[in-house]
Give the backbone structure.
Amino acid sequence: MFAERPANERDLVVAAQRGDRAAFGELVRAHERRAYVVARAIVANHEDAEDAVQDGFLHAYRALDRFLPDQAFGAWLHRIVANAALDITRRRKVRDADELPETVASPFRDPAEGSELRRRLRAALETLPARQRAVIVLHDVEGFKHSEIGKILDIPEGTARSDLHYARTLLRGLLGEVRKAL
């Protein structure tokens, strides 16, 4: 006889805490796309984002026993993934490694990545400090609220608002000539 699948995320978390790997697998599937978006908002390339997601899920799995099931699993997980992405960004600054080309197919790849506008936007975003880049992408692209961004990045809500303002101002300056050309 088959065991009944948990009906909601809290049940999946409790099952995963009891050692049900399939339940944790369902949590991964439910959150992997959003976790990738969080990571990609912070790191400079696709490969680092995938690494951050993998590191984040591994850390979450190892720390699952400390998670309180009545909390929002997604917010907890996204903070872990954001921290993993920030760690990767810090390590990249320390080592001077060559960036791998983004030629491997991925279910997360944006089909418009090859466009000139996307290239210019990505270049402009990469000039922003990592936290400002994360805030602007999480807010303007993914639709997170300031309070959610604060929880994900472990910063006050006001700091998220301020970072968003400064990031937009910097991008306006960097992309001013692109806007005129359109």
About this structure: Residues 1-6, 95-107 have pLDDT under 50 and may be disordered. The radius of gyration is 18 Å. DSSP finds eight helices and no strands in the chain. The domain at 112-182 is CATH 1.10.10.10 (Arc Repressor Mutant, subunit A).
